[in-house]
Amino acid sequence: MSSFLRQTYGQRIQNHTNPAAKLLLETMERKKTNLAVSVDVVKSKDFLAIIDAVGPFVCLVKTHIDILEDFDYSTIQRLQDLSVKHDFVIFEDRKFADIGNTVALQYSSGVHKIANWSHITNAHPVPGPSIISGLSSVGLPLGRGLLLLAEMSTRGALATGSYTEDAVRMARANRDFVIGFIAQRTMEGVGLQSHSVDNDDFLTLTPGVGLDSKGDAMGQQYRTPRQVILESGCDVIIVGRGIYGKDPSLVDEIKLQAQRYREAGWQAYQERISAHV
Ligand code: 5IU
Question: In which pathway does it act (predicted)?
């Protein structure tokens, strides 16, 4: 197994210059968790209650702010208060995909003003490198970080092969702002000659994680934290319905599930860093 994957999250802080990447690794090391919770609910009350319940167990909360039916900017203030209270990073899963000028406006403006509050966001590499320059013109001065979507968890996803390799090359050329990938496996060494050493330590955040289910009726596919962290070399497990799915109002059950996923993710990580080659 390669060098970065054998390092602890704490040791990897020094491999990064971007403040959002450092913050995420520091938070993971401090709280001993590689669990991120994805909160895909449509009522602000449920959204905030779930985040308050899982807060102690997560390094990061992933949002889709545009699905809130009753959105008002005060929800953002509450989200930020919870981020301070529980010490987690915020990741708006916006999946930008337009030309540089448009994504810069979508990132900075509109109703949601994502760059104002989200430490990390993500983008599809499909428009080419200009999407990174557009977003970094807004995000870099604010100390934000970007993840590129190199792969997806859904059945039949088109982000494979040379598309994925090109995404990694785009990231390597923009290391100040691109901190890693949404992918199903580590991108370490991808697109490089087999004997060359990869000097770029990117973070891999991975959705499509579930302990009790293999998928849903809409193409989602789940793997376990062990498969994701230990076998595939990813760094953060992103779990949504596996944690709040039964009933978003059952706070005790949500806490229990968050603890369960946190333990599974951390155990797989500890096995990884102590594994013999
Ligand atoms: N998500 C995926 N797969 C992907 C990408 C994003 O599931 O490849 I890129 C998002 C969608 C949802 C969350 O917000 O991650 C997963 O939620 P569930 O754990 O409830 O399936």
Answer: Pyrimidine metabolism; UMP biosynthesis via de novo pathway; UMP from orotate: step 2/2
